[in-house]
Amino acid sequence: MWQPAQRYPDPAIEILDPRFAKYQLMNAAVERLATGFRWAEGPVWFGDGRCLLWSDIPNDRVLRWDEETGAVSQFRKPSNFANGHTRDRQGRLLSCEHGTRRVTRTEYDGSITVILDRFEGKRLNSPNDIVVKSDDSIWFTDPPFGILGHYEGHAAEPELPTNVYRVDGRTGEATVVAGEVDRPNGLCFSPDESRLYVVESGSTPRRIRVFDLSADGQRLENDRVFVQADPEGAPDGFRCDVDGNLWAGWGTGEGRDGVMVFAPDATPIGRIALPERCANLCFGGPARNRLFMAASQSLYALYVNTQGAPGG
Predict the structure, then answer these.
(1) Please, what sign has the CA dihedral across residues 73, 78, 80, 81?
(2) What are the φ/ψ torsions at residue 305 (nearest 5 degrees)?
(3) I need a surface site. Which of 85, 160, 221, 249 has the fewest CB within 10 A?
(4) Is the dihedral of CA 278, 113, 100, 50 positive or negative?
(5) What is the model's pLDDT at position 3?
(6) Which of 62, 19, 23 is nearest to 39 (CA)?
(7) What pLDDT shows up at residue 256?
(8) In a 10 Å sphere around its CB, with 0-12 CB exposed, 13-18 middle and 19+ buried, how is residue 145 labelled?
(9) Quick one: pLDDT at residue 312?
(10) Quick one: residue 176, left, alpha or beta (phi over 0 = left, psi -120 to 50 = alpha)?
(11) How far is 312 from 133, CA to CA, in rounded Å?
(12) Distance from C-alpha of 69 to C-alpha of 232, rounded to nearest angstrom
C-alpha cells in the first residue's frame, strides 16, 4: 500500500555517496500521480502541452497526465502495444510499437509515419526504447519481449537478432550499431553525446553496457560494462541529467524497487525507493527538474535539484 511521506526529508530518497546530496531537495517528496495500470512504461514529457504521455502496454493504450489539473485521460487506444517513447528535435512523438513491430512518428496533424518496420527484408522483433541524437538520427533497441506471448503484443518467431539500430535523420537509412547486446532494453546518450548507455536484459545478472561514439557520431566503439547488477537487480530504462549522472529504473524485489542513480564513473550515488518496480523514467516539468517514474501499476514523480539532459 502506497503511503506518501509525512515529513521532510522523504526517507524514500537515500544518499549513497556525498555527490548525490546536492541533487536532493529537502522539501520535496515522492508523489504518486496515478495508479490502476497493468504495466506502465515509456514516459515522455510534452512541455508545450504541459502533459506527460506514457504506455500501459498490456492494456494497449497510451495515457496522458495533465500537469495543470492532474487529470489522466486516454491519449491513444489501440496503441499497437506501444512501449518506449521520445520526441524528435522538432517536437514530434516517436513511439516503439510491439504489436506492429515498428517505430513510428506522430506528425503534427496526427497522422502516423513509419520510421522502420523491417531490416534487410525481415520484420523487426518488438522495438522497445528510443532516443534521438542532435543530428536528428533515431536510435532504438529491438529485443523480443513483445513477441514472446500475447500479453504485450502478439506471439511470433523472431526474424532478426536483438540489435540496436540507428536510422539516419536525413536519408532514413537504417544500420545496426550494436548486434552483440543480448536483449537490449533501455538506452540513452550522455549529455555531450560521447557515450551511449544500453541495458543488456539477456545477461544473468543484467548489466548496463556503455559505448563510445565514433568521431563521426554514427557508430559505436569501445564496448564495456558500465554497471553489473546484483543477481536480483534489474535495470530497465534510464535517462541522464545535465551532469552526466544516469538515473535508472530498477527492480525487482523488496528493497530494490525504484530508481538507482550512478555517477559518470559508475559509482552508485543515490537511490529512490518505490513500492513497485520502476520500468522507465524521464525528466519533465517547465524546468526539466521533475523526475517522472513509470513503475509497474503506477506513475510517480519527484522534484530534484538537477535537470534532464536534452534528447531524452
Answers:
(1) positive
(2) -95, 50
(3) 221
(4) positive
(5) 87
(6) 62
(7) 85
(8) buried
(9) 64
(10) beta
(11) 9
(12) 38
In degrees, rounded to 5, the angle at the alpha carbon of residue 303 between the alpha carbons of residues 299 and 306 is 125
What CA–CA distance (Å, rounded) separates 19 from 270?
9
List Cα–Cα distances, 118 to 114, 127, 132, in angstroms.
Answer: 10, 11, 19
Q: Are strands 31-35 and 40-46 parallel, antiparallel or unpaired?
A: unpaired
Q: What single letter denotes the amino acid at residue 143?
A: P
Identify the CA nearest to 255 among candidates 237, 230, 228.
Answer: 230
**The three three-digit cell numbers of residue 9, written as one number:** 526529508
- Rounded CA-CA distance 20/305 in Å is 10
Q: What is the 3-state secondary structure (H, E, C) of 241-287?
A: ECCCCEEEEECCCCCCCEEEEECCCCCEEEEEECCCCCCEEEEECCC
Report the alpha-carbon distance of residue 159 to residue 180 in Å, rounded.
16
Give pLDDT, residue 181.
Answer: 96
Q: Grid coordinates standing for 277?
A: 518496480
The pLDDT averaged over each successive group of 10 residues in the chain (312 residues) is 90 97 98 98 97 98 98 98 97 98 98 98 98 97 98 98 97 97 98 98 94 97 95 91 98 86 98 96 97 98 97 68
The C-alpha angle 76, 77, 78, rounded to 5 degrees, equals 125
3-state secondary structure of 145: helix
Question: CB within 8 A of 197, min separation 6: which ones?
Answer: 186, 187, 188, 189, 190, 208, 209, 210, 226, 238, 240, 246
